[in-house]
Amino acid sequence: MPSPSPALIARFADIVGSAHAITDPADMAAYLVEHRDLYQGRTPLVLRPGSTDEVAAILKLAGETGAAIVPQGGNTGLVGGQIAQGGEVIVSLSRMNRVRSVDPDDDTITVEAGTVLDQVHKAAEAVDRLFPLSLGSEGSCQIGGNLSTNAGGTAVLAYGNARDLVLGLEVVLADGRVWEGLRSLRKDNTGYHLKDLFIGAEGTLGIITAAVLKLFPRPREVATAFVAVDDPATALKVFSLARGMAGAQLTACELMPRAGLEMVLKHAAGARDPIAAPHPWYVLVELASPLEGSGVSGVLQAILEDGFEQGIVRDAAVAESIAQAQDFWQLRLLMSEVQRAEGGSIKNDVSVPVARSAELIARGIDAVLKIVPGCRPIPFGHLGDGNIHFNFSQPVDGERDAFLEQWDAVTGAINEVVADLGGSISAEHGIGIMKQHLMGTIKSPVELDMMKALKKAFDPKGVLNPGKVV
Fold first, then answer.
1. What is the pLDDT of residue 56?
2. Which CATH architecture has domain 221-333?
3. pTM, whole model, 2 decimals?
4. Dmax over Cα atoms in the chain, in whole Å?
Protein backbone atom coordinates (compact mmCIF):
# COMPACT_ATOMS: atom_id res chain seq x y z
CA MET A 1 0.00 0.00 0.00
CA PRO A 2 1.25 3.54 -0.71
CA SER A 3 2.39 5.64 2.24
CA PRO A 4 -0.06 8.34 3.31
CA SER A 5 0.34 11.80 1.80
CA PRO A 6 1.42 14.78 3.94
CA ALA A 7 -2.19 15.98 3.93
CA LEU A 8 -3.43 12.62 5.21
CA ILE A 9 -0.69 12.51 7.84
CA ALA A 10 -1.94 15.88 9.07
CA ARG A 11 -5.49 14.54 9.29
CA PHE A 12 -4.33 11.56 11.34
CA ALA A 13 -2.29 13.84 13.60
CA ASP A 14 -5.30 16.04 14.26
CA ILE A 15 -7.11 13.07 15.79
CA VAL A 16 -4.59 12.55 18.61
CA GLY A 17 -3.08 16.04 18.76
CA SER A 18 0.37 17.08 17.63
CA ALA A 19 1.98 16.05 20.94
CA HIS A 20 0.98 12.44 20.30
CA ALA A 21 1.71 12.26 16.57
CA ILE A 22 5.39 11.40 16.05
CA THR A 23 7.11 12.13 12.75
CA ASP A 24 10.69 12.83 13.82
CA PRO A 25 12.89 9.86 12.76
CA ALA A 26 14.85 9.90 16.02
CA ASP A 27 11.69 9.79 18.10
CA MET A 28 10.20 7.02 15.95
CA ALA A 29 13.27 4.78 16.17
CA ALA A 30 12.09 2.86 19.24
CA TYR A 31 8.91 1.82 17.40
CA LEU A 32 10.77 0.51 14.34
CA VAL A 33 13.08 -2.17 15.76
CA GLU A 34 12.31 -5.31 17.69
CA HIS A 35 14.04 -7.32 20.38
CA ARG A 36 15.93 -9.71 18.11
CA ASP A 37 17.04 -7.03 15.60
CA LEU A 38 15.65 -9.16 12.79
CA TYR A 39 13.33 -6.54 11.30
CA GLN A 40 13.75 -2.85 10.61
CA GLY A 41 10.50 -0.94 10.35
CA ARG A 42 9.59 2.01 8.17
CA THR A 43 6.78 4.48 8.84
CA PRO A 44 5.97 8.15 8.23
CA LEU A 45 3.94 8.44 11.43
CA VAL A 46 3.45 6.98 14.89
CA LEU A 47 0.10 7.77 16.51
CA ARG A 48 -0.41 7.47 20.27
CA PRO A 49 -4.16 7.62 20.89
CA GLY A 50 -5.38 8.17 24.43
CA SER A 51 -8.89 6.75 24.12
CA THR A 52 -11.03 4.23 22.32
CA ASP A 53 -12.77 7.09 20.52
CA GLU A 54 -9.44 8.22 19.08
CA VAL A 55 -8.60 4.69 17.93
CA ALA A 56 -12.03 4.52 16.30
CA ALA A 57 -11.45 7.83 14.51
CA ILE A 58 -8.06 6.64 13.27
CA LEU A 59 -9.50 3.43 11.83
CA LYS A 60 -12.48 5.24 10.33
CA LEU A 61 -10.10 7.53 8.46
CA ALA A 62 -7.88 4.61 7.48
CA GLY A 63 -10.89 2.72 6.15
CA GLU A 64 -12.04 5.69 4.12
CA THR A 65 -8.62 6.40 2.62
CA GLY A 66 -7.09 2.90 2.43
CA ALA A 67 -4.17 3.86 4.67
CA ALA A 68 -2.60 0.80 6.25
CA ILE A 69 -2.30 0.54 10.05
CA VAL A 70 0.02 -1.53 12.26
CA PRO A 71 -1.13 -1.77 15.91
CA GLN A 72 1.69 -1.92 18.45
CA GLY A 73 1.81 -2.63 22.18
CA GLY A 74 5.05 -2.88 24.13
CA ASN A 75 7.01 -3.89 21.02
CA THR A 76 8.17 -7.12 22.66
CA GLY A 77 6.88 -9.49 19.96
CA LEU A 78 9.33 -12.06 18.64
CA VAL A 79 8.03 -12.70 15.11
CA GLY A 80 7.69 -9.15 13.77
CA GLY A 81 3.92 -8.91 14.00
CA GLN A 82 4.21 -5.41 15.49
CA ILE A 83 6.66 -4.04 12.89
CA ALA A 84 5.65 -1.70 10.06
CA GLN A 85 7.78 -2.73 7.08
CA GLY A 86 5.85 -1.12 4.25
CA GLY A 87 5.42 2.45 5.41
CA GLU A 88 2.23 1.78 7.36
CA VAL A 89 1.07 4.10 10.13
CA ILE A 90 1.90 2.70 13.57
CA VAL A 91 -0.80 2.99 16.22
CA SER A 92 0.80 2.60 19.64
CA LEU A 93 -1.63 1.81 22.45
CA SER A 94 0.83 2.72 25.22
CA ARG A 95 -1.12 5.78 26.42
CA MET A 96 -4.24 3.68 26.93
CA ASN A 97 -2.98 2.18 30.16
CA ARG A 98 -5.75 2.63 32.71
CA VAL A 99 -7.00 -0.06 35.05
CA ARG A 100 -10.69 0.72 34.59
CA SER A 101 -12.00 -1.43 37.42
CA VAL A 102 -11.12 -4.28 39.76
CA ASP A 103 -13.83 -6.51 41.23
CA PRO A 104 -12.45 -9.07 43.71
CA ASP A 105 -15.94 -10.42 44.42
CA ASP A 106 -16.37 -11.23 40.73
CA ASP A 107 -12.67 -12.12 40.35
CA THR A 108 -12.27 -9.79 37.37
CA ILE A 109 -10.15 -6.83 36.33
CA THR A 110 -10.88 -4.54 33.39
CA VAL A 111 -7.84 -2.90 31.82
CA GLU A 112 -6.98 -0.94 28.70
CA ALA A 113 -4.79 -2.47 26.03
CA GLY A 114 -1.70 -0.41 26.81
CA THR A 115 -1.53 -1.55 30.43
CA VAL A 116 1.82 -3.18 31.12
CA LEU A 117 1.43 -6.78 32.31
CA ASP A 118 3.32 -6.13 35.54
CA GLN A 119 0.86 -3.35 36.39
CA VAL A 120 -2.00 -5.81 35.99
CA HIS A 121 -0.20 -8.14 38.42
CA LYS A 122 0.14 -5.33 40.96
CA ALA A 123 -3.48 -4.23 40.62
CA ALA A 124 -4.58 -7.81 41.24
CA GLU A 125 -2.26 -8.19 44.22
CA ALA A 126 -3.68 -5.00 45.75
CA VAL A 127 -7.01 -6.81 46.20
CA ASP A 128 -5.36 -10.09 47.23
CA ARG A 129 -5.83 -11.76 43.86
CA LEU A 130 -3.63 -13.28 41.15
CA PHE A 131 -3.51 -12.60 37.43
CA PRO A 132 -1.48 -15.63 36.35
CA LEU A 133 -0.13 -14.68 32.91
CA SER A 134 3.64 -14.52 33.46
CA LEU A 135 6.30 -13.73 30.84
CA GLY A 136 9.94 -12.76 30.86
CA SER A 137 8.98 -9.40 29.31
CA GLU A 138 6.20 -8.64 31.81
CA GLY A 139 7.83 -5.37 32.80
CA SER A 140 7.32 -3.94 29.31
CA CYS A 141 4.83 -6.07 27.33
CA GLN A 142 1.25 -4.80 27.23
CA ILE A 143 -2.06 -6.59 27.59
CA GLY A 144 -3.22 -5.70 24.08
CA GLY A 145 -0.17 -7.40 22.60
CA ASN A 146 -0.46 -10.34 25.01
CA LEU A 147 -4.00 -10.99 23.84
CA SER A 148 -3.31 -10.31 20.18
CA THR A 149 -0.67 -13.05 20.23
CA ASN A 150 -2.51 -15.34 22.67
CA ALA A 151 0.57 -15.26 24.90
CA GLY A 152 1.50 -18.34 26.88
CA GLY A 153 4.24 -18.06 29.50
CA THR A 154 5.17 -20.14 32.50
CA ALA A 155 1.71 -20.59 34.04
CA VAL A 156 -0.08 -22.24 31.11
CA LEU A 157 0.02 -25.63 32.80
CA ALA A 158 -2.25 -24.44 35.60
CA TYR A 159 -4.19 -21.52 34.08
CA GLY A 160 -4.04 -21.81 30.29
CA ASN A 161 -2.99 -19.38 27.55
CA ALA A 162 -4.09 -15.74 27.37
CA ARG A 163 -7.30 -16.81 25.62
CA ASP A 164 -8.31 -18.78 28.70
CA LEU A 165 -7.92 -15.70 30.90
CA VAL A 166 -10.28 -13.37 29.01
CA LEU A 167 -14.00 -12.89 29.62
CA GLY A 168 -14.73 -9.88 27.43
CA LEU A 169 -13.15 -7.46 24.97
CA GLU A 170 -13.59 -3.98 23.59
CA VAL A 171 -12.43 -3.91 19.96
CA VAL A 172 -12.26 -1.24 17.28
CA LEU A 173 -13.07 -2.71 13.88
CA ALA A 174 -11.39 -1.81 10.59
CA ASP A 175 -14.14 0.67 9.65
CA GLY A 176 -13.99 2.48 12.99
CA ARG A 177 -16.99 0.85 14.63
CA VAL A 178 -16.51 -0.25 18.25
CA TRP A 179 -17.58 -3.65 19.52
CA GLU A 180 -18.57 -3.16 23.16
CA GLY A 181 -17.90 -6.67 24.41
CA LEU A 182 -16.65 -5.93 27.93
CA ARG A 183 -18.82 -8.53 29.64
CA SER A 184 -17.71 -10.52 32.66
CA LEU A 185 -19.98 -13.51 32.13
CA ARG A 186 -18.51 -16.95 32.80
CA LYS A 187 -21.22 -18.55 30.68
CA ASP A 188 -22.77 -17.04 27.56
CA ASN A 189 -24.16 -19.39 24.94
CA THR A 190 -25.70 -16.78 22.62
CA GLY A 191 -24.06 -17.61 19.32
CA TYR A 192 -20.51 -17.16 18.03
CA HIS A 193 -17.91 -16.43 20.69
CA LEU A 194 -16.55 -13.36 18.94
CA LYS A 195 -13.80 -12.52 21.42
CA ASP A 196 -11.86 -15.61 20.45
CA LEU A 197 -11.54 -14.33 16.88
CA PHE A 198 -9.49 -11.34 17.99
CA ILE A 199 -7.31 -13.14 20.53
CA GLY A 200 -4.32 -14.48 18.61
CA ALA A 201 -5.22 -12.56 15.43
CA GLU A 202 -2.22 -10.21 15.80
CA GLY A 203 -4.28 -7.11 15.06
CA THR A 204 -5.37 -8.29 11.61
CA LEU A 205 -9.12 -8.32 12.38
CA GLY A 206 -9.45 -5.38 14.77
CA ILE A 207 -7.60 -3.46 17.47
CA ILE A 208 -8.21 -4.60 21.03
CA THR A 209 -8.56 -1.51 23.25
CA ALA A 210 -9.66 -3.06 26.57
CA ALA A 211 -10.32 -6.42 28.17
CA VAL A 212 -12.06 -8.04 31.12
CA LEU A 213 -9.58 -10.52 32.60
CA LYS A 214 -10.04 -13.34 35.09
CA LEU A 215 -8.49 -13.16 38.54
CA PHE A 216 -7.70 -16.08 40.83
CA PRO A 217 -6.98 -16.63 44.52
CA ARG A 218 -3.39 -15.80 45.40
CA PRO A 219 -1.24 -18.77 46.37
CA ARG A 220 -0.66 -19.00 50.12
CA GLU A 221 1.83 -21.83 49.88
CA VAL A 222 4.37 -22.43 47.13
CA ALA A 223 6.99 -25.16 46.90
CA THR A 224 9.72 -25.05 44.24
CA ALA A 225 12.42 -27.56 43.35
CA PHE A 226 15.32 -27.59 40.88
CA VAL A 227 15.58 -31.22 39.82
CA ALA A 228 18.46 -32.93 38.01
CA VAL A 229 17.63 -35.64 35.45
CA ASP A 230 19.46 -37.62 32.78
CA ASP A 231 17.54 -36.64 29.67
CA PRO A 232 14.22 -35.21 28.37
CA ALA A 233 12.58 -38.64 28.38
CA THR A 234 13.29 -38.92 32.10
CA ALA A 235 12.12 -35.35 32.60
CA LEU A 236 8.76 -36.41 31.15
CA LYS A 237 8.60 -39.20 33.73
CA VAL A 238 9.21 -36.66 36.47
CA PHE A 239 6.41 -34.50 35.06
CA SER A 240 4.05 -37.47 34.94
CA LEU A 241 4.93 -38.40 38.52
CA ALA A 242 4.39 -34.84 39.74
CA ARG A 243 1.11 -34.47 37.90
CA GLY A 244 -0.16 -37.76 39.28
CA MET A 245 0.74 -36.93 42.87
CA ALA A 246 0.00 -33.18 42.93
CA GLY A 247 -2.88 -32.85 40.47
CA ALA A 248 -4.04 -29.25 40.11
CA GLN A 249 -1.42 -28.12 42.63
CA LEU A 250 1.27 -28.60 39.97
CA THR A 251 1.56 -25.11 38.51
CA ALA A 252 4.81 -25.29 36.51
CA CYS A 253 7.16 -27.83 34.99
CA GLU A 254 10.01 -26.30 33.00
CA LEU A 255 12.82 -28.09 31.16
CA MET A 256 16.41 -26.79 30.93
CA PRO A 257 19.58 -28.25 29.42
CA ARG A 258 22.97 -28.02 31.15
CA ALA A 259 24.38 -26.05 28.20
CA GLY A 260 21.74 -23.36 28.68
CA LEU A 261 22.28 -23.24 32.44
CA GLU A 262 26.01 -22.77 31.92
CA MET A 263 25.29 -19.77 29.69
CA VAL A 264 23.17 -18.21 32.42
CA LEU A 265 25.85 -18.87 35.05
CA LYS A 266 28.46 -17.32 32.77
CA HIS A 267 26.61 -14.17 31.73
CA ALA A 268 24.00 -13.37 34.41
CA ALA A 269 25.33 -11.45 37.40
CA GLY A 270 24.78 -13.25 40.68
CA ALA A 271 23.51 -16.49 39.12
CA ARG A 272 24.39 -19.58 41.10
CA ASP A 273 24.12 -23.29 40.33
CA PRO A 274 21.49 -24.77 42.70
CA ILE A 275 23.10 -28.22 42.57
CA ALA A 276 26.80 -28.79 43.28
CA ALA A 277 27.51 -31.46 40.66
CA PRO A 278 26.58 -30.80 37.01
CA HIS A 279 23.87 -32.86 35.34
CA PRO A 280 22.84 -32.97 31.68
CA TRP A 281 19.24 -31.78 32.18
CA TYR A 282 17.06 -30.10 34.79
CA VAL A 283 13.38 -29.70 35.56
CA LEU A 284 12.00 -26.76 37.51
CA VAL A 285 8.94 -28.02 39.37
CA GLU A 286 6.55 -25.78 41.28
CA LEU A 287 3.47 -26.59 43.35
CA ALA A 288 1.09 -24.00 44.77
CA SER A 289 -2.11 -23.80 46.76
CA PRO A 290 -4.39 -20.93 47.85
CA LEU A 291 -4.80 -22.67 51.22
CA GLU A 292 -2.49 -22.12 54.13
CA GLY A 293 -1.45 -25.40 55.63
CA SER A 294 -2.17 -27.24 52.39
CA GLY A 295 1.02 -29.23 52.70
CA VAL A 296 2.37 -28.63 49.18
CA SER A 297 5.91 -28.80 50.55
CA GLY A 298 5.19 -32.29 51.80
CA VAL A 299 3.71 -33.29 48.46
CA LEU A 300 6.80 -31.99 46.66
CA GLN A 301 9.02 -33.90 49.03
CA ALA A 302 7.05 -37.08 48.37
CA ILE A 303 7.39 -36.55 44.61
CA LEU A 304 11.15 -36.21 44.91
CA GLU A 305 11.43 -39.25 47.18
CA ASP A 306 9.45 -41.36 44.72
CA GLY A 307 11.58 -40.00 41.90
CA PHE A 308 14.78 -41.01 43.70
CA GLU A 309 13.40 -44.49 44.36
CA GLN A 310 12.44 -44.91 40.70
CA GLY A 311 15.86 -43.70 39.56
CA ILE A 312 14.47 -40.79 37.54
CA VAL A 313 15.65 -38.02 39.89
CA ARG A 314 19.43 -37.75 40.23
CA ASP A 315 19.55 -34.80 42.61
CA ALA A 316 17.36 -31.90 43.67
CA ALA A 317 17.46 -28.57 45.45
CA VAL A 318 14.29 -27.42 47.21
CA ALA A 319 13.85 -23.67 47.68
CA GLU A 320 13.87 -22.78 51.35
CA SER A 321 12.66 -19.22 50.86
CA ILE A 322 10.79 -17.03 48.40
CA ALA A 323 14.09 -15.43 47.40
CA GLN A 324 15.65 -18.79 46.62
CA ALA A 325 12.63 -19.81 44.56
CA GLN A 326 12.97 -16.56 42.62
CA ASP A 327 16.63 -17.37 42.02
CA PHE A 328 15.62 -20.74 40.56
CA TRP A 329 13.14 -19.02 38.26
CA GLN A 330 15.69 -16.44 37.14
CA LEU A 331 17.88 -19.26 35.85
CA ARG A 332 15.00 -20.35 33.64
CA LEU A 333 13.77 -16.90 32.60
CA LEU A 334 17.23 -15.67 31.57
CA MET A 335 17.97 -18.69 29.40
CA SER A 336 16.85 -17.02 26.19
CA GLU A 337 18.39 -13.62 26.87
CA VAL A 338 21.90 -14.84 27.68
CA GLN A 339 22.19 -16.64 24.35
CA ARG A 340 22.78 -13.23 22.74
CA ALA A 341 26.11 -13.06 24.56
CA GLU A 342 27.14 -16.34 22.92
CA GLY A 343 26.82 -14.98 19.38
CA GLY A 344 24.22 -15.93 16.80
CA SER A 345 21.13 -17.79 17.98
CA ILE A 346 18.54 -19.45 15.76
CA LYS A 347 15.26 -19.73 17.62
CA ASN A 348 12.18 -21.90 17.25
CA ASP A 349 8.95 -21.68 19.25
CA VAL A 350 7.22 -25.01 18.67
CA SER A 351 4.88 -27.42 20.40
CA VAL A 352 4.04 -31.09 20.16
CA PRO A 353 1.82 -33.39 22.23
CA VAL A 354 3.41 -33.47 25.68
CA ALA A 355 4.30 -37.15 25.43
CA ARG A 356 6.30 -36.48 22.22
CA SER A 357 8.50 -33.70 23.64
CA ALA A 358 11.53 -35.92 24.23
CA GLU A 359 11.27 -37.35 20.73
CA LEU A 360 11.07 -33.83 19.30
CA ILE A 361 14.27 -32.83 21.09
CA ALA A 362 16.22 -35.94 20.12
CA ARG A 363 15.20 -35.89 16.47
CA GLY A 364 15.53 -32.13 16.19
CA ILE A 365 19.06 -32.05 17.56
CA ASP A 366 20.11 -34.87 15.26
CA ALA A 367 18.65 -33.13 12.19
CA VAL A 368 20.22 -29.73 12.90
CA LEU A 369 23.68 -31.04 13.77
CA LYS A 370 23.79 -32.55 10.28
CA ILE A 371 23.19 -29.08 8.85
CA VAL A 372 25.48 -27.09 11.19
CA PRO A 373 28.00 -29.41 12.85
CA GLY A 374 29.26 -27.99 16.12
CA CYS A 375 26.29 -25.73 16.82
CA ARG A 376 25.01 -25.82 20.39
CA PRO A 377 21.42 -27.01 20.96
CA ILE A 378 19.58 -25.14 23.75
CA PRO A 379 16.06 -26.64 23.85
CA PHE A 380 14.19 -25.45 26.92
CA GLY A 381 10.77 -24.37 28.07
CA HIS A 382 7.32 -25.46 29.04
CA LEU A 383 7.57 -29.24 29.31
CA GLY A 384 4.17 -29.45 30.98
CA ASP A 385 2.33 -28.19 27.89
CA GLY A 386 4.64 -29.48 25.15
CA ASN A 387 5.98 -26.02 24.18
CA ILE A 388 9.73 -26.16 23.56
CA HIS A 389 11.84 -23.12 22.71
CA PHE A 390 14.17 -25.04 20.41
CA ASN A 391 17.15 -22.72 20.09
CA PHE A 392 20.60 -23.26 18.62
CA SER A 393 23.67 -21.13 19.39
CA GLN A 394 26.48 -20.77 16.89
CA PRO A 395 29.52 -23.05 17.15
CA VAL A 396 32.07 -21.78 19.68
CA ASP A 397 34.58 -20.87 16.97
CA GLY A 398 31.95 -20.08 14.35
CA GLU A 399 31.11 -16.84 12.58
CA ARG A 400 27.82 -15.22 13.57
CA ASP A 401 26.56 -14.08 10.16
CA ALA A 402 27.48 -17.35 8.47
CA PHE A 403 25.59 -19.23 11.16
CA LEU A 404 22.50 -17.03 10.92
CA GLU A 405 22.42 -17.62 7.15
CA GLN A 406 21.37 -21.16 8.06
CA TRP A 407 18.20 -19.87 9.79
CA ASP A 408 15.76 -21.18 7.19
CA ALA A 409 17.51 -24.53 6.89
CA VAL A 410 17.60 -25.03 10.67
CA THR A 411 14.01 -23.94 11.29
CA GLY A 412 12.90 -25.98 8.29
CA ALA A 413 14.47 -29.10 9.77
CA ILE A 414 12.80 -28.51 13.12
CA ASN A 415 9.47 -27.79 11.46
CA GLU A 416 9.63 -31.09 9.57
CA VAL A 417 10.02 -32.99 12.85
CA VAL A 418 7.24 -30.93 14.44
CA ALA A 419 4.87 -31.66 11.56
CA ASP A 420 5.64 -35.39 11.72
CA LEU A 421 4.80 -35.37 15.43
CA GLY A 422 1.50 -33.55 14.93
CA GLY A 423 2.75 -30.30 16.43
CA SER A 424 2.68 -26.56 15.74
CA ILE A 425 5.44 -24.34 14.35
CA SER A 426 4.24 -21.50 16.60
CA ALA A 427 3.28 -22.38 20.14
CA GLU A 428 3.03 -18.94 21.77
CA HIS A 429 4.90 -16.32 19.73
CA GLY A 430 2.51 -16.00 16.79
CA ILE A 431 3.01 -15.83 13.01
CA GLY A 432 3.86 -12.19 12.26
CA ILE A 433 6.34 -11.63 9.46
CA MET A 434 8.64 -14.50 10.35
CA LYS A 435 6.26 -17.40 9.71
CA GLN A 436 3.64 -15.93 7.39
CA HIS A 437 5.22 -17.58 4.33
CA LEU A 438 4.78 -20.98 5.99
CA MET A 439 1.02 -20.76 6.42
CA GLY A 440 0.38 -22.45 3.09
CA THR A 441 2.45 -25.43 4.18
CA ILE A 442 0.98 -25.91 7.66
CA LYS A 443 -2.69 -25.12 7.06
CA SER A 444 -5.05 -27.09 4.88
CA PRO A 445 -6.80 -25.32 1.99
CA VAL A 446 -10.02 -25.41 4.01
CA GLU A 447 -8.35 -23.76 7.02
CA LEU A 448 -6.78 -21.08 4.84
CA ASP A 449 -10.09 -20.40 3.08
CA MET A 450 -11.82 -19.92 6.45
CA MET A 451 -9.08 -17.60 7.70
CA LYS A 452 -9.11 -15.54 4.52
CA ALA A 453 -12.88 -15.32 4.66
CA LEU A 454 -12.68 -13.93 8.19
CA LYS A 455 -10.04 -11.42 7.14
CA LYS A 456 -12.15 -10.28 4.19
CA ALA A 457 -15.28 -9.98 6.31
CA PHE A 458 -13.63 -7.99 9.12
CA ASP A 459 -11.12 -6.02 7.03
CA PRO A 460 -12.29 -5.93 3.38
CA LYS A 461 -9.85 -3.15 2.42
CA GLY A 462 -6.88 -4.87 4.07
CA VAL A 463 -5.85 -1.89 6.18
CA LEU A 464 -5.13 -3.79 9.40
CA ASN A 465 -1.58 -5.13 9.81
CA PRO A 466 -1.14 -6.15 6.16
CA GLY A 467 1.25 -8.99 5.39
CA LYS A 468 0.80 -10.65 8.76
CA VAL A 469 -0.83 -14.03 9.49
CA VAL A 470 -2.79 -14.32 6.19
1. 98
2. 2-Layer Sandwich (3.30)
3. 0.94
4. 74
